[in-house]
Amino acid sequence: MTIAGCADDIDDSAAPSAPPTPPSVSASTTTDTDQLHLVNLGDSFSAAAGVQPLVADSPVLCLRSSRNFAHVLAAAEGYRLTDVSCSGADTTDFASLQYDGVPPQLDALTDDADIVTVMIGGNDSDLYSTAIRECADLAARDLSGSPCADTRGAEYVDIVENQTAPALLDALQAVRDKAPDAEILVVGYPWILPPTGGCYPAMPVATGDVTYLRELQSVLNAALQRAAEQTGARFVDMAPASEGHDACAPVGQRWIEPRNGASGAAPVHPNAAGQQAIADAVAAALE
């Protein structure tokens, strides 16, 4: 998300401008037309921001990794891959130009798409990056309390219900319209925080706000699931599998890197192990 992408805890809007990239929307692992064609859409969780190496011909601002879950899945299953995931993307970037040289993601969908994977929503209204940042700023007031919940209340959840959820439905319907015969899989966001406790200062969230942000993520994933069901897509729920692999888990166990001390991925984003786990979950859903 930029929560990613769930949204990225990176401020993508403040990223420096870069020279225009040639408007190639694909990064294919193979051109064998007899293989099933996988198209990957989405944000920085889908792109695997910070996981090296990047796809050689991809737009630099997208931070698209050659080890994201779509590349891992395509290599394992022998799919032909078109990957247009891009850090900072929200649902508006499905139909609009995101950066110079980064066409609307829906442009990648053609009649020969067999499988479409989608991971999007955390960046809408700058939701999750704002929540993480503001809750971190407020944590110093009362580390054992819930200063963010006390200050923001239902504000973030209301944004999901009233703005993000309708946008997700529209975006997924547009995907369905462009690829009516494809198997569409909507991937939920893996847990960023544990159920309780937290791990300040690696994740600078007050103890009482850990459950507050978990609830926000749960509401976002529920909106994704509803939109998937309403558009005939499958929802790949990463919540059960990712329990215990959040940003507070030990190195080697965590799938999400913390805000402070991240290694191998962008802060508050899936690392290579997290991307492998997502690939495994999508593969299982396709069986």
TrEMBL record:
CDD domains for the chain: SEST_like
Gene3D superfamilies associated with the record: SGNH hydrolase
Region (Disordered): 1-32
Segments passing through the bilayer: none
Disulfide bonding pattern of the chain: 62-86, 135-148, 199-248
Catalytic residues (UniProt): 44 (nucleophile), 269
Keywords, comma-separated and alphabetical: Disulfide bond, Hydrolase
Domain SGNH hydrolase-type esterase: 41-277
GO terms under biological process: triglyceride catabolic process
Keyword Disulfide bond among UniProt keywords: yes
Designated name of the protein: SGNH/GDSL hydrolase family protein
Domain of life: Bacteria
Pfam family, one: Lipase_GDSL_2
Keyword presence, Disulfide bond: yes
GO MF assignments: triacylglycerol lipase activity
